[in-house]
Design a protein that fits this description.
By secondary structure, the chain is of the alpha+beta class. It is built from 2 helices and 6 strands; from the N terminus they run E-H-E-E-E-H-E-E. The strands form 2 sheets. A 4-stranded antiparallel β-sheet has the order 1-4-3-5. A two-stranded antiparallel sheet has the order 2-6. It is elongated and about 55 Å long.
């Protein structure tokens, strides 16, 4: 299983690659909200710096785990560019009045 944070990190990498690869293309897409639904197991580490961790469970594993140990979560990410706060476009330069 992988951590939820690792999945989000990979999603960010893939979206960044899509933006770069679209540079110079005539047809562009505005990146809207990204909805994610996942089965997760929650674990808490013991010790002085204990922390709660969310692990993604694949569909087969989720079915085998006890219902009390596995939760289904849904969340929506609203991607923004770090430098401007604007919604990213999967392509090159902005064109006036384009959405």
């Amino acid at each position: 299983m992988i951590e939820l944070s690792e999945m989000i990190r990979e999603l960010r990498r893939e979206l960044t690659a899509a933006i770069s690869e679209g540079d110079g293309e005539r047809v562009r897409f505005e990146l809207g909200p990204v909805e994610i639904e996942a089965s997760v197991t929650v674990s808490k580490e013991a010790g002085g710096d204990a922390k709660l961790r969310f692990w993604l469970a694949d569909t087969g594993a989720a079915a085998k785990l006890a219902r009390a140990d596995t939760q289904r979560i849904t969340f929506t990410l609203h991607p923004r560019l770090a430098d401007s706060g604007a919604s990213p476009l999967i392509s090159g330069d902005d064109v006036p009045h384009e959405r």
